[in-house]
Each structure stands twice: as structure tokens, then as C-alpha cells.
Amino acid sequence: MSIAGIVLAAGRSTRMGSNKLLATYRDRPLVVHAIAAALASPLQSVVVVTGHQAATVAAAIAAAMAGGDLPDAADRLRVVHNPRFADGLAASLQAGLAALGGDVDGAMVMLGDMPLVTPALVARLLAAHAAHPEAAAIAPLIEGRRGNPVLMMRPLFPALATLVGDEGARRLLAGRADVVDVEIADPGAALDIDTPDALRDLLATQRT
Questions:
Q1: GO molecular-function annotation terms (predicted)?
Q2: Does position 23 have pLDDT exceeding 70, yes or no?
């Protein structure tokens, strides 16, 4: 079973006012935290999808690789650009799926603005699929709500290709009997940094 990671790092950060992916938390850009978690997990490979300020985001990733913050990146990491990033999240997800090899059985979809997602959480979702190989998707469940990342298997890929705008997979997964929810207490699966207030709260944790 081959599972790849897709880190979505293409958004325009309209609510933030500046590129949130490049905001520094614990001495690393937010997007580097997300990529590092993917690389430190059992995922076979990782695709990062850039869009807005693609060159700057790619440069931050390259600097992290050179500085040793992204181990094994040279062999397992690929950065692709989505020229349709302004069309919304769906276009970036589809660009990531298109970059996967035909031998990939599923994709762990991760968001570049979720720096508290851990390799352990990714591994737990992968283990849940090993226990439920018939599942089309595996999602973390926090206080009754689905969070991220979400593992989506290849049978879902054609449906994901029909998404438009900023529509994610939530609607597609709703009500499906073949989606397995994994109850967790990890707040990192629910925390995405979309606003200056959210970033301020995150940075405050550096002092604790």
C-alpha cells in the first residue's frame, strides 16, 4: 500500500493580510512545520502544492532543506505549482492529485497553515486505514467535528476532481458509510492559522 502526502500551500491568505505560510513559529515558517510532519511520518512521498507567491514559498522550503529542517526531503519531497491557485482550494487539491504517481493508493491531504499537526497523528490515521482497508477515507474527529489531515483513497479521486472553488472534501465525505472517523484529543488537527488573531494566539504558546 503506497500512501503519499499532499501539503496544500497555495492560498492567498486573504484574511491574514500577508502570506501566513511564511509566518515564523518556533523559528520555522508555518508551511515548513506541516511539511516536516509529513516527512517524519510513514508517508512514502510528499507533494507540496504552491500558488500565491510560489517562488517565495519554494525558497523557504529550499532554505529549510539546506538548514536540515526537512530530513529526507531530497528523496521524498516534490514541489509543484498550481497556476490556477486563484480558483480556490479545489484546484490546488487537484494539482496535488495529478502530481501523484499511478502506483499511489491514497493521499493524506494536509494544510500548510496547520503547524501543530504531528507525525504521530499522521501515523495514527495510516494505522486506522490498515485496520479498515475497505475505508474510502480516514478522518480525525475532535469533539464531534472532523479535522485535518484526511486520508483519501484512490476510489475517491474521480469525485475530488469534480470539486470547484474553495470546496473541500467535506461534502463528499458527509454521510458516506465507508468513511472511518478516528476520535482524537489532539488540538493540532483543528487549528489552522487563518487570521492575525489566530497567529497571535499560536505565537503566545512559544512562551509557555
A1: nucleotidyltransferase activity
A2: yes
Helix (H, G, I), strand (E, B) or coil at 101: coil
Q: Which of 25, 40, 82 is nearest to 58 (CA)?
A: 82
- Grid cell listed for 140: 480525525
Is CATH 3.90.550.10 the classification given to domain 3-207?
A: yes
Matching residue, cell 497553515? 113
Contact 21, 124 (CB under 8 A): no
> Residue 168: CB partners within 8 Å, gap ≥ 6?
89, 90, 93
The pLDDT, as a whole number, for residue 18 is: 64
192: helix, coil or strand?
coil
pTM for this prediction: 0.93
Q: What are phi and psi of 78, to 5 degrees?
A: -135, 135
